[in-house]
What does this fold into?
Amino acid sequence: MVVRNYNQELEYLEKINSYCWKIKKGFQPNMNVEGVFYVNQTLEKLMLDELRNACRPGMVGGFLPGVKQIANVAALPGIVGRSVGLPDIHSGYGFAIGNMAAFDMGDPNSVVSPGGVGFDINCGVRLLRTNLFEQDVLPVKEQLAQSLFDHIPVGVGSKGIIPMNSKDLEEALEMGMDWSLREGYIWAEDKEHCEEYGRMLNADPSKVSMRAKKRGLPQLGTLGAGNHYAEIQVVDEIYDKWAACKMGIEEVGQVCVMIHSGSRGFGHQVATDALVQMEKAMKRDNIETNDRQLACARINSVEGQDYLKSMAAAANFAWVNRSSMTFLSRQAFAKQFRVTPDDLDMHVIYDVSHNIAKVEEHIVDGKQKTLLVHRKGSTRAFPPHHPLIPVDYQLTGQPVLIGGTMGTCSYVMTGTEQGMLETFGSTCHGAGRALSRAKSRRNIEYTEVLRRLEDMGISIRVASPKLVMEEAPESYKNVTDVVNTCHAAGISKKAIKLRPIAVIKG
Amino acid sequence: MPEFTPEELALPPQKYEYLDHTADVQLHSWGNSLIEAFEQCGIAMFGYMTELESVEIKQCSEIEATGHDLESLLFHFLDELLFLFSCEPFLICSKLVITEFMTEGEEMHIKCKCYGEEFTIGKHPQGTEVKAITYSAMQIVNEPEQNNFELFVIIDI
It folds into this structure.
């Protein structure tokens, strides 16, 4: 590989407009298409600093800057359009986190890559509304936070409380939220407001290893650790009154619940198993990639198909998982206010998946094509009138839920026509890491973080308080910068801003 | 409850540390032999899940792992340990003793005794969850002449 200095590298990058940069072919070897990334002034600096650091002489190790990773993905067989980096991008395993890429299903050489989905398959965000207002909740905020924390199992080593045996698990993997509905954990309307109606039909539990099932069974209905959370939030600002109205958000001050979680150990093991299988398939089919971490297999190979079927089972697991926690949150609220969840109008506004690969129809060079769209740390954002979004949102566009970090705001956006054209209907997913965990731990005191949250009037219940600084806002990019960039670039549109008043974390 | 000898209950000195990585954490372990570096690497992973001082040695499980080279052997060794923690017997370990370490021939093979107890919320402080082991920037320094044995592994968290 050619070694270039920072200024030589910059010649391959071109600023198209204030929010968008192009990565030209040749930046990394064998690029089939160009790359693109969306940043504003602040995020641009972070992005280029990362590249500059990697260009320093004597830099070794596996740390590839996000912009290089976008270009490596552009070199994968069968990729169409462009390899897209969203504003919250940061370096990840193979694909950067905040990277999306689409592969032509009609091209026999096209690949599927578990690294393009991530270890936490169908990690996503769900937003519930209530008809409560901030003043209803403030007097009982501590009790409510405690009650949510008592209801939802959180943190490493916690076990689910929804009774499950291995037969139930098999059914849940196949049926997704249809299982949750049959067992009485959710409302029929919940499914409507969920990508894929909460069930991927190509899921095949028989393709999933025993090992993944064993890891998954005790963890169903648990939140997890790391950046996962359940938050009680308050509507802070409404940018698009009409869209908000369609989502049942009437006024500033209305209380919502946001749940951010994924497929737990089940999905992690499915991804691990697939990576091992694909290493072999790559050797057999002579698939060359720029980075060993970009393990992949042809979509039509046995390994590729097996992965897609087990990934779908993991996606179903994640939906059942978020549904179980939806059930527990409704119970916690109902007990606190002594009314039914129904009377509290605790409907699901929407549920998005930000680590997933899906078969979708898109227009490429004026022709309609069937593509396998990988979104890793990227959220689907379909425009108004798209056939795959629920009838309630046909006129507004799909709601896009952007979770902030502990103590910062979250956003609801909507999909746009421009996003459909430029980024295959994809946008950002959250804040995106800026500092490493170890660095956060060195620079920030956990007591300081907890005190600051308290000063901001946020109740916090956390399973491992000594690790909260890893998730402190300063460890992340500013979510407002990220969302504003997507809005300004036109790939999605701001609708609602939410601020947390209670956080439950692992 | 099984009886353990004082030797089995004695904990080895710490020969590992945690290094910087943007989203994840890198384990770095070393020892007087490759075996010791492997054992230390496993402990380093458990040390990220809880505070190891809280772990008592009450039970012992044996795991086996295989690989076609040292890297895959290390990968599968750690994956087995993660599995031991993630479901029955939910074992959190403060001591690992590798009893077989075959690195010659076609298939490499490892057997390891894992000492610890069932992870219990309330007794064991909750640390960070390990999602998966990765090959990302994995390095195995195996230099018997210099008596230099080091491992670098990034775990996804």
